[in-house]
Amino acid sequence: MSPRRPQTEADRGAIRRLPVLIPPPEAPPDVDGSDHPVRAVTRAVAADEASWTAAAAAEMIERFDELAPDWPDRLSPEEFVGLPDACERGLLEPSALCLEVGSGTGFGTVHLAAHFRATVAVDISAGMLALASPDLAPRVRADGASLPLPDDSVDVVALINMLLFPSEVDRVLRPDGAVLWFNTLGVRTPIHLPAEEVAAALPGRWQGIASEALWATWCVLRRAAPDG
Q1: CB under 8 Å to 146, separation ≥6 — which residues?
Q2: Dist. CA 205–CA 158, nearest whole Å
Q3: Parallel/antiparallel/unpaired status of strands 139-141 and 15-17
Q4: Which 3 state secondary structure label does DSSP give 139?
Q5: What is the largest CA-CA distance in the chain?
């Protein structure tokens, strides 16, 4: 895997910011993940996917399998209410096939399944998937670094509080597809990258729109036209 390319002025100008329509009604949950160990993993993997080893994957599986039973108590459904805003103002077609990578126990799947024609939920943790509703979407246990899908097979890749594996996202996404990146607590989310860094990490040139909703930050990115 090649390291992330340097961000250019064109990249930094490729994200259009939309006004905030759902402001936070109160202080965010008492969580600050800026110094969480997984924040360092997030940056490392986005910059160089080779940093994601079998040992790293095994550690992540163990971590989230252990957290799974208490996961519904760690998150609030309100943290995900910005997903419809991202889908609608991100111009994500309801007729699309959406792949949610890092679906967890299904807090985000609820909104994705309501918006898209079809959604597939993927997570590396069997413990998390076991707690997700089977009625929302098909559940698949897989590593986001090696998805069991053909090239160019999905319209949208949704990443909600999920590590970014740039080349794998690029591989499974159709040429006219979109990436939905959503951090439920914005910069306070342990697994967080700003929109500009997500765009810069993906292969080639990307452009899109971004905004905030409640405590969340989101962006929807698409490949830039050759002369765009």
Answers
A1: 168
A2: 19
A3: unpaired
A4: strand
A5: 49
The parts of the chain modelled with pLDDT lower than 50 are: 1-13, 228
CB 196 within 8 A of CB 219: no
Query: What six digits make up the tokens of 176?
Result: 């006219």
Question: Cα separation of 31 and 175, whole Å?
Answer: 37
> What tokens were used for 3?
């390291």
CA distance 110 to 96: 16
> Left (φ > 0), alpha (ψ -120 to 50) or beta: where does 141 sit?
beta
pLDDT at 227: 64
Please give the Cα distance from 48 to 183 (Å, whole number). Answer: 21
Closest CA to 18 of 228, 215, 213, 224: 213
The pLDDT of residue 11: 44
90 CA to centre of own chain: 14
